[in-house]
Design brief:
2 domains, 10 helices, 80% helix, elongated
Length: 245
């Protein structure tokens, strides 16, 4: 089982689900078999909703990976910027980002843009602060060593700063992705016809409980796919962190 952790996890979930289904015997709780059968027969419809949510999350990740990293590096490398920007980040970071959804829909409309912006807000602060701390944690001797070799600013970023911040970036993304999916699930219930959050709540309102559980399974697979994508990218960009086995 150690070689197939995903399969092992799925077997445990299915086993617990089956026991709960047999023990509760409720009409609103389908069996794993019924749910999988529903997924198979409604695959094209669920895929459309899933792809809409995946697109929103992925675009937000790409945007905030750039903006958050740039903000974090700038804050860490400039005392003046740090003194001005860090208090602002500390003030805004604790605010529940879902509170900004009405404002975002007013300014950016009811379509994809407001939902992507909401996820960006969630990811941005986590990434910016994490990258700032990663850069500040680099020993000063590293900068002295590379500058003594006559390196340019771009080479300092390429050979010192970027290798130091990439692991922290992926850690921040992993921590934030789960929260982002949860908030996107809520946001997709407003003025949209596509999105896995919309599909789940629409199924619930229609008393289609099998469809609701199928949507929950689908959103879990989307989360797993995102984490798998992050793991794959980290293995490619952070080869020096891989164990020599």
């Amino acid at each position: 089982m150690k070689k197939y952790p995903v399969l092992y996890s799925c077997l445990i979930i299915v086993a617990v689900w089956t026991v709960a289904y047999l023990a509760l015997n409720k009409s609103f709780m389908p069996s794993p078999y019924q749910t999988v059968l529903y997924l198979g027969t409604h695959l094209s419809l669920i895929s459309l909703h899933l792809l809409a949510s995946f697109y929103r999350i992925l675009v937000a990740i790409l945007i905030t990976a750039v903006l958050g990293s740039a903000t974090g590096m700038l804050t860490a490398r400039s005392k003046a910027v740090d003194a001005w920007l860090s208090p602002l980040l500390y003030t805004l970071y604790p605010i529940p980002k879902i509170a900004f959804l009405p404002l975002l829909m007013l300014f950016l409309g009811l379509g994809n843009l407001s939902k992507i912006a909401l996820v960006c807000l969630i990811l941005f602060f986590q990434i910016a602060l994490s990258i700032r701390d990663s850069v500040k944690a680099i020993p000063p001797s590293y900068f002295l060593a590379i500058k003594s070799l006559g390196s340019s600013k771009s080479q300092v970023y390429q050979h010192v700063i970027l290798p130091a911040i990439v692991p922290g970036l992926f850690t921040s993304l992993r921590i934030s992705v789960g929260t982002s999916i949860s908030v996107l699930f809520f946001a997709e219930n407003f003025a949209t016809e596509y999105g896995i959050g919309y599909f789940i709540m629409d199924s619930w309102l229609k008393l289609d409980y099998t469809g609701m559980f199928a949507g929950i399974v689908a959103i879990s697979f989307m989360g797993g796919a995102l984490f798998g994508l992050l793991d794959f990218m980290e293995s490619r960009l952070c080869r020096w962190r891989q164990p020599n086995i």
